[in-house]
Amino acid sequence: MKLETKISLILIIIFLTIGAIFFITGFSALNLLNNLLGINGLVTYAIFPLLFIGMLILIGLLIERQIRKPLFFFIRWIDQLSLGVFKMPDTIKNFPLDKMRFSLFLELKSKLDGLTYQLNTAEKERKELEETRKNWTSGVTHDLKTPLSYIKGYAAMLRSEHKWNEEEIKEFAKIIEEKSLYMEQLIDDLSVIYEFDKMQIPLDLRTINLVTFVKNVLEDLRQYPMANDYPIHLNVKNEGDILLSFDQTLLKRALENFIMNAIYHNPRETTITVSIETIKGSTLIEIKDNGIGMDDKTIQQLFNQYYRGTTTDKSHLGSGLGMSIAKQFIEKQGGQIIVESEPNRGTKIKILFPL
């Protein structure tokens, strides 16, 4: 039996019960009134049925408009939500919502309004994430296929009957090596994401001089051919050593990802400055560039592992995983990341570690 039918039966029983009570008490009251006032009983008995019928009609209308229709309205609303239709149903025929009187129903409507809004928001976010995930999967697949096609092509050329000179062979080998390294890096990133999901990343915290560590990281980064066009500076604002407990492997990878992201997404000659200082019980590492900056939407998506960015013309260099991995590595060590950026004003990535 449908819920609406059950409710209708219950309301009919309530209606009949009220009618019976009214009939018994009303008839008894009229008899008593006849005796006290000496009124002709026939007149009373003629008036009573009219009063009784009128009262039944009034009670029926009250139950219909103020109880049954609102209940059916809320049942329809909940049914719609359960079916994935996250909106308020059309108003019941001949029953505008502003005629709802009982505070219980008004409170229920308010609760359902809030729930509908939250479900709508969640559904919108789910669809956006699903679309981003599809685009990311398509992009990563393309990223793997493209270097693979290079490798296959140059391997086929080397295997051909053509007599390549030594310089050409070295050039082909260099391209094959570069494409292989890129594929290896991409597979490593995917592996890291998987290990993070499984909580399998070990943490090896050691207290080390942060200044020396960052100097070494920057020195390694300057060896990358692409970094030659981007001046990278170190600015230490405190004198002496800055001792900090951190995992060298994770922090090195995070700093590399942040700095390489600045290189990928900015034009040549963009200056990158890494600053270190201690402030208010924390150690701050700031990676600042004077590049093209980001708008608010890009900042919000920056650490989404499925976001691949939109401002670079070097799309083959980024899987979209680097920033997500960097953020997870920092947070794994108890750090916090703050991003400040404006279009055409550059970007600051602030990494805070508690002392």
Automatic annotation (TrEMBL):
Q: What is its EC number?
A: 2.7.13.3
Q: Where are the transmembrane segments?
A: 7-30, 42-63
Q: Which SUPFAM superfamilies match?
A: ATPase domain of HSP90 chaperone/DNA topoisomerase II/histidine kinase, Homodimeric domain of signal transducing histidine kinase
Keyword entries, A-Z = ATP-binding, Coiled coil, Kinase, Membrane, Nucleotide-binding, Phosphoprotein, Transferase, Transmembrane, Transmembrane helix, Two-component regulatory system
User: Recorded GO terms, molecular function?
Assistant: kinase activity
Entry's PROSITE patterns?
A: HIS_KIN
Substrates-to-products reaction catalysed: ATP + protein L-histidine = ADP + protein N-phospho-L-histidine
Record protein name field:
histidine kinase
Nucleotidyltransferase listed as a keyword: no
| Pfam families attached to this UniProt entry | HATPase_c, HisKA
Q: Which residues form the Histidine kinase domain?
A: 139-355
> Where in the cell?
Membrane
| Coiled coil location | 105-139
